[in-house]
Amino acid sequence: MDRILAEFYPYAHAELDFRSPFELLVATVLSAQTTDVRVNQVTPVLFAKYPDARALSEAEPEEIEEIIKPTGFFRAKARSLHVLSQRIVDDFDGVVPGRLEDLVTLPGVGRKTANVVLGNAFGVPGITVDTHFGRLAKRFGWTASEDPVKVEQDVMELFPPGDWTMLSHHVVFHGRRVCHARKPACGACPVAALCPSFGDGETDPEKARRLLKYELAPGQEDLRAEMIENVHRAAEIRMRTQRAAAAQNTAADAARNGGAGKDRA
Ligand code: SF4
Fold it and tell me: Which residue among 2, 130, 138, 207 is the active-site one?
């Protein structure tokens, strides 16, 4: 199943933008209760101002809050980032540790976040059990458990360590684009023939196609072709389209507000 997903998503990658373990750790904390797109919009400003744990630990929480506001729960997240950075400075000399047992001692860092950082920033194999991975692992019959730690263990037994990090990306990509929580697009799913849960969602191919998201959505064929052709630049291409979509939304909001203003005038 992973082989098919790997062929279907040759451009799968960590969807949070980062250039160092510290940036990925911070971005992962910010991604709670929001989308990676929104996080990627604020982190360039945040890291330009606070490039490492020491700088962030010395920042005024209000300044952090102002920058990360669009990610929601910004007061709690600013506090978490501040405390987290202080601990990295105090206990690890300002350097994010590269071992699971050390990472999970940091405030607000659980196994999921630790595995994201290890797998993607340190090259240490890890399975990242987020909400998508947990749901799909159950639908695929890889586990019967709801407990993320048990899911991680069950899946680790099925795949060699070298596959773990990319497997996590493939499954999460599939969960975001095809195998949605409420209405999986079974009729347009590349692993339908192998999936014991085929039929949990829409099986009509045409109706299922309309449920697909991101670069698989109808009308985005050129984007997908571009991502497949430029696999190593897929993240950059994705960011470009996301920025364009965000600009369009902002323009639409402005037009609506302008229209509302005129109505009121
Ligand atoms: S067949 Fe349906 S339930 Fe199975 S992976 Fe595909 S979309 Fe998900």
Answer: 130
Whole-angstrom Cα Rg for the chain: 20
**Left, alpha or beta for 123 (phi > 0: left; psi -120 to 50: alpha)?**
left
The band of 264, judged by pLDDT with boundaries at 50, 70 and 90, is very low
- Nearest to 229, CA basis, from 10, 4, 72, 5: 10
- Using the 3D structure, point to which of 154, 177, 200 is the last residue of a domain: 177
Domain of 205 in residue numbering reads as 181-228
98 is in an annotated binding site: no
Tell me the per-residue pLDDT of 144-197, one tens digit each, with 9 for 90 and over.
999 999 999 999 999 999 999 999 999 999 999 999 999 999 999 999 999 999
User: How many domains are contained in the chain?
Assistant: 3
d(CA 42, CA 236): 16
Residue 76 and residue 205 in one domain: no
| Pocket test residue of 174, 186, 202, 211 for ligand 1, highest count of atoms within 8 A of CB | 186
First to last CA, the chain: 59
31 with 160, same domain? yes
